[in-house]
Structure formats: structure tokens, C-alpha cells
Amino acid sequence: MSYADQVFAQNCRDILAKGVWDTDRPVRPKWEDGTSAHTIKLFGVVNRYDLREEFPILTLRRQYFKSALDELFWIWQKKSNNVHQLSSHVWDAWADESGSIGKAYGYQLGVEYDFPEGRMDQVDWVLWQLKHNPASRRIVTNLFNHHDLKEMGLQPCAYSMTFNVSGNTLNGILNQRSQDMLTANGWNVMQYAALLMMFAQVSGLEAGELVHVIADAHIYDRHVPAVEELLKREPYPAPRVALDGSVTDFYAFTKSSFTLEGYQYHELEGKIEVAV
């Protein structure tokens, strides 16, 4: 049984059993038909995944690993804010007519700052710290730039990574202000597990724990039946995810650098509507 499935299932059970509905107040998200998209939520969910044990990918429903990597590279390698540079159409609802989502996500990672170590962006600064100053307790990225919020098509959900080296092991904390459990939880977890693996490899370190901190873990009202169906399923064993060990430059990784072996999964019947 996949450990990621166990964590996901327990989170969903806790939300459904102990969560709070927001139906007593106006909410921003809408369904395609204009109806308010309400949620049942649980505050302050913390999950831990040890990448030395297994890669965290759900089997209760199919996860499109290569598409998730494509989005990760779009943000962390290309540092892009234009959906035309993505293979999928996940972000189209938040883009303007030119394809831009404004000063959001990848844009923030590409902004250069005058760090004590020199002028560089956040990604290059993390890579520099991991190679030259791994004992630092200040290796943090942040996408939630308050000055630019008014110019963002979508304010970042997964907004901060803290990297910490213990011995020869690289661990990371992903902070997320909001999490749509059905559509995004498995997606974000495997993305940032992959990111931790890549940063570790190019820094001569071993990938260790990914800690996922979710402020608002929620299930949308129209997603409840689908979640309840998933909870009835028997998970499969975790697949094996391997990374091409010859890559030493973070920007040289591609989707082909990862191999996914033995992935068994359940299909989720019907289209899952996304609230915007």
C-alpha cells in the first residue's frame, strides 16, 4: 500500500469528519455555472514523506506525473508566468489574452536580488547556498510577494519552500496556504518531492523528508461524492521513481530525467470540475 495513499485518505476522512463548512458566508470561488463553490475545511494539516522510503504518489486515482513535472519546470526552471509555455491547460482560467498570469509563481522566482553572495534570483540563490553554505538555516524561497499581489492572476497556493541540510541529507518544508484535496494534493506532493530530489542530486546530497504544511485543507462541495468513492478503494503498492544520476545541472533536468516504474492506479470516472 502506498504511504501517500494512507496520508491522503486519512486527511480526507479527518476533513469530512471534523471539518467546518463555509456555507454560512460568501466565498470567492465559483463553479462553471456561476454557483458559489463552498468547501468543508480543516485547519493546520501537517504531513511528512520520507523519500528514502518511497516516492509519494497516489494510486487511489491516477496521477499524471509527467504533466506535474512539466508544471514544476515551468515554475522553477523557466521561471515563467505565461501558460503558452506549458503543455497542459490547467492554468488557462487564470491567464489573460496574452497567456500571462501576471507577477505570479515563476515570475517571482525569476526576479533578481542583491544577495550578500551576489546578484541572482531565488532558485540560483538556493543552489548556491546548498553547495557553499549547507549549514545555513536561512535557505528559504517565497512566492507570496505582497507588493505584487494586485498584479497576480492567481495568488500562490504553494508559496514557500524551506530547505535544511542534516548531515548529508536534504530535507524540505513546503508551506501551502490553501489545498484543494481532490484535484491538487497528490499533484503538489509529487512535484515538490521531485524538486527535493533534483536539488539534492545537483548539490551532492541525499533527498530525505518532505514536510507538507497546509493551512486550509479543504474538499469542495461537489467533490465530496468523488472523495467518498476514493476512500472505498484498496490502494496499490507505491511505484518506483528514479532520477537520472548523470545530471549535475538543475537546469538540465527534463521530464525524461525521471522514470516511473510499476505504477498501478485506479481511474477516477467522470470529469472533475475545478472551481475558479
Which whole number gives the mean pLDDT?
A: 96
- Structural category is alpha+beta
Q: Number of helix segments? A: 6
| Tertiary shape | globular
Strand order of the largest sheet: 1-2-8-7-6-5
Spans of at least 5 consecutive residues with low confidence: none
Alpha-carbon distance between the termini? 33 Å
- Pattern of helices and strands: HEEHHEEHEEEHEHEE
Write structural notes for this entry.
The chain has 276 residues and is α+β, with helices and mostly antiparallel strands. The chain is globular. The mean pLDDT is 96. The chain contains six helices and ten strands. A six-stranded mixed sheet has the order 1-2-8-7-6-5, with helices on one face. Strand 7, helix 5 and strand 8 form a beta-alpha-beta unit. The longest helix has 22 residues.
In brief:
With 276 residues, the chain is α+β, with helices and mostly antiparallel strands. The chain has helices spanning 3-18, 65-76, 106-110, 122-132, 181-202, 224-230; strands at residues 20-21, 39-50, 112-115, 118-121, 139-142, 158-166, 169-180, 206-220, 240-243, 258-261.
Topology of helices and strands:
Layout: H1 3-18, E1 20-21, E2 39-50, H2 65-76, H3 106-110, E3 112-115, E4 118-121, H4 122-132, E5 139-142, E6 158-166, E7 169-180, H5 181-202, E8 206-220, H6 224-230, E9 240-243, E10 258-261
Parallel strand pairs: 7-8
Antiparallel strand pairs: 1-2, 2-8, 3-4, 5-6, 6-7, 9-10
Helix pairs in contact: 2-5
Keywords:
25% strand; 10 strands; 6 helices; globular; alpha+beta
